[in-house]
């Protein structure tokens, strides 16, 4: 008489096998049939940091998002969450080389557009063996806000310009003071403020005025964190652009640009100066 190998397994081992199978089933139910918690969001498939195919991290695994109902409101939340400004298009994933067919977990995203994170938006969590022939969610964002100094005598002086939602513009000098200027200097890794009043040599800009009535405390990491009148909402007179001259800049920890008698000179730290002495 022949017996199957299963007939001689110990009852305890059979119970362990059944328990393991049950846990596997429960894990699938929790992840895919219930609410899948989105831990992180990223964009992939592009050299630009603020463009690409949307991926979400769920249970230590990165998953794609199906583009069913995907629109600019959904994309706006992703751009905001990643510090990438606002979306200017929602291209097909194939634009980033993602035209493969793959299983997805997140689909039917329905954001209002003002959420802080994609996890706050309503969405469905279910396994799909395909996503409309590889139609995954993707986005092109304008990029993060930036600040720069132009037309100055060094990299640490000039007319203050900021980029917001992909557009460069100027800052009005109404209420512009030492605290506002210090925030700009610090963000650009310049040491401190030497002058915060506008210098005519910086020239006049033809760019739109994006910020006015800036009221920094001096502790902010960037000028757009300061209270202001509102982006592009201003009554700034023409030609009143904010400017700043900072005392120097630390360049990769190797050299410092300092102002001596209003002339800029680069000093190499390894020659005769220590970093703390230069500061």
Automatic annotation (TrEMBL):
InterPro entries, A to Z: SRCR, SRCR-like_dom_sf
Keyword flag Lyase: no
Cellular location(s): Secreted
GO biological process, one term: zymogen activation
Keywords: Disulfide bond, Glycoprotein, Receptor, Repeat, Secreted, Signal
Pfam families for this protein: SRCR (PF00530)
Summary of the function given for this chain in its UniProt record: Binds to extracellular matrix proteins. Binds to pathogen-associated molecular patterns (PAMPs) present on the cell walls of Gram-positive and Gram-negative bacteria and fungi, behaving as a pattern recognition receptor (PRR). Induces bacterial and fungal aggregation and subsequent inhibition of PAMP-induced cytokine release. Does not possess intrinsic bactericidal activity. May play a role in the innate defense and homeostasis of certain epithelial surfaces.
Subunit structure: Interacts with LGALS1 and laminin.
Protein name as annotated: Soluble scavenger receptor cysteine-rich domain-containing protein SSC5D
Species in which this protein is naturally found: Pleurodeles waltl (Iberian ribbed newt)
């Amino acid at each position: 008489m022949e017996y199957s190998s299963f007939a001689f397994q110990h009852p305890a081992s059979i119970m362990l096998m059944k328990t393991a199978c049950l846990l596997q089933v429960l894990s699938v139910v929790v992840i895919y049939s219930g609410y899948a918690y989105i831990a992180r969001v990223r964009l992939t498939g592009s050299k630009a940091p603020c463009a690409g195919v949307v991926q979400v991290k769920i249970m230590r695994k990165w998953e794609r998002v199906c583009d069913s109902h995907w629109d600019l409101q959904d994309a706006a939340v992703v751009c905001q969450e990643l510090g990438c400004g606002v979306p200017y298009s929602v291209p097909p994933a194939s634009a980033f080389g993602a035209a493969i067919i793959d299983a997805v977990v997140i689909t039917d995203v329905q954001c209002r557009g003002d959420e802080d994170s994609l996890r706050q938006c309503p969405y469905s969590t279910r396994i799909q063996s395909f996503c409309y022939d590889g139609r995954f969610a993707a986005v092109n964002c304008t990029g993060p806000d930036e600040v720069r100094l132009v037309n100055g005598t060094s990299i640490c002086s000039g007319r203050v310009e900021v980029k917001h939602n992909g557009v460069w513009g100027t800052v009005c000098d109404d209420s512009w003071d030492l605290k506002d200027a210090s925030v700009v200097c610090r963000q650009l890794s310049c040491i401190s403020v030497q002058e915060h009043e506008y210098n005519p040599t910086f020239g006049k800009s033809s760019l739109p005025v994006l910020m006015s009535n800036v009221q920094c405390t001096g502790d902010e990491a960037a000028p757009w964190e300061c209270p202001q009148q509102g982006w592009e909402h201003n009554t700034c007179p023409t030609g009143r652009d904010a400017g700043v001259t900072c005392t120097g800049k630390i360049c990769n920890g190797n050299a410092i640009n300092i102002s001596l008698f209003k002339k800029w000179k680069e000093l190499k730290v390894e020659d005769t100066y220590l970093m703390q002495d230069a500061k």
